[in-house]
């Protein structure tokens, strides 16, 4: 049966570890595997802007011997005249996989239900699972074994990155803490799913409105923009509500001395993170950005093997 990657828990703990191992192997030998030789085409569709996702999928598909077809929704029928299901039926006749950055998670589900080629979520309003594969690869490189590590997210708790941290990190057996203001809480359904996953992996989930309690003794500190794509109209009210949740040097002092800082980028220095932190010695953001390439190549190779 075709496997899709629409949310982080579409991979079991063992499968997630397998993909991360493959990513590390592919990073060490960048052009060693070419499952898309032919070349086969991978459609990469964008309803929203992107730098990292666009470039890493384009370069990654080429590295795998394939041909990336980057589609901007505005210049396609998708989102206007044509449903995700019909688009999927057309694309599956010509491409090996479909990668889609969109708004509603339900669109991805509809697309996946309508096709026999793998569908990959390249960011939705609810999740950013490809980013989390890159983040976990980065954390592994800097900290070793993932299970048992504590990751603290501080900022917009209703963010797609938070939902992905909750699911992906508990899948890896990590402890996840989220520090957020009351108005921006994570989805209760996702928190419940993460707690259920954690029961099986030895991880845990802690939610708090106190940023220092979130970060205390953490191995990894992360944040994300306060103004996600599609929420630009809410900028002023969000900045006010989130102003006590900036990752500053003072906040980082509560984490372990060897804690690393991650941010999926793009970043708004001075809002969610102080420049001294994101540009400081504990920041691993450039490794994290590079790892999008390696993690997604591994994911595509893994999914295609099962398609
Ligand atoms: N982190 C991330 O997904 O970046 P882009 O929006 O540039 O793709
Ligand atoms: N939460 C951000 C992530 C960007 C990669 C957004 O959705 O805009």
Automatic annotation (TrEMBL):
Protein EC: 2.1.3.3
Keywords: Cytoplasm, Transferase
Database matches in PROSITE patterns: CARBAMOYLTRANSFERASE
TM annotation in the entry: none
Lineage: superkingdom: Bacteria
Broad class of the protein's primary localization: cytoplasm
Positions annotated to bind L-ornithine: 160, 224, 228-229
Domain Aspartate/ornithine carbamoyltransferase carbamoyl-P binding: 3-141
InterPro entries, A to Z: Asp/Orn_carbamoyltranf_P-bd, Asp/Orn_carbamoylTrfase, Asp/Orn_carbamoylTrfase_sf, Asp_carbamoyltransf_Asp/Orn-bd, Orn/put_carbamltrans, OTCase_ArgI
Sequence positions that bind carbamoyl phosphate: 50-53, 77, 101, 128-131, 264-265, 292
Catalytic activity, as annotated: carbamoyl phosphate + L-ornithine = L-citrulline + phosphate + H(+)
Enzyme class (EC, first level): transferase
A UniProt-annotated Pfam family: OTCace
Localisation per UniProt entry: Cytoplasm
Domain Aspartate/ornithine carbamoyltransferase Asp/Orn-binding span(s) in chain numbering: 148-303
GO molecular function, one term: ornithine carbamoyltransferase activity
Pathway: Amino-acid biosynthesis; L-arginine biosynthesis; L-arginine from L-ornithine and carbamoyl phosphate: step 1/3
HAMAP family attached to this UniProt entry: OTCase
Protein family membership: Belongs to the aspartate/ornithine carbamoyltransferase superfamily. OTCase family.
Name of the protein: Ornithine carbamoyltransferase
Organism: Amnibacterium endophyticum
């Amino acid at each position: 049966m075709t496997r899709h990657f629409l949310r982080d828990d579409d991979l079991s703990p063992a499968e997630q570890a397998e993909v991360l191992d493959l990513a590390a192997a592919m990073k060490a030998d960048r052009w060693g595997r070419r499952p898309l030789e032919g070349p086969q085409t991978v459609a990469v569709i964008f309803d929203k802007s992107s730098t990292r996702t666009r470039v890493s999928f384009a370069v990654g598909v080429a590295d795998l011997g394939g041909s990336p077809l980057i589609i901007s929704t505005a210049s396609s029928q998708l989102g206007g005249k044509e449903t995700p299901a019909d688009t999927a039926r057309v694309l599956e006749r010509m491409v090996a996989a479909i990668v889609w950055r969109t708004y509603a998670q339900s669109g991805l589900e509809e697309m996946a239900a309508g096709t026999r080629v793998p569908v990959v979520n390249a960011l939705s309003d609810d999740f950013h699972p490809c980013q989390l594969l890159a983040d976990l690869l980065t954390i592994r490189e800097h900290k070793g074994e993932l299970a048992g590590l504590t990751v603290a997210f501080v900022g917009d708790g209703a963010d797609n990155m938070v939902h992905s941290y909750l699911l992906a990190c508990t899948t890896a057996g990590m402890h996840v803490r989220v520090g957020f203001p009351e108005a921006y809480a994570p989805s209760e359904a996702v928190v419940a799913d993460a707690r259920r996953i954690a029961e099986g992996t030895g991880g845990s989930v802690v939610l708090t409105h106190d940023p220092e309690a979130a970060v205390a003794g953490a191995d990894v500190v992360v944040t994300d923009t306060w103004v996600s794509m599609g929420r630009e109209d809410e900028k002023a009210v969000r900045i006010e509500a989130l102003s006590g949740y900036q990752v500053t040097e003072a906040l980082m002092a509560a984490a372990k001395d060897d804690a690393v800082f991650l941010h999926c980028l793009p970043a708004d220095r001075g809002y969610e993170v102080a420049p001294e932190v994101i540009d400081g010695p504990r920041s691993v953001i450039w490794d994290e950005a590079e790892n999008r390439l390696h993690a997604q190549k591994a994911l595509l190779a893994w999914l295609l093997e099962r398609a």
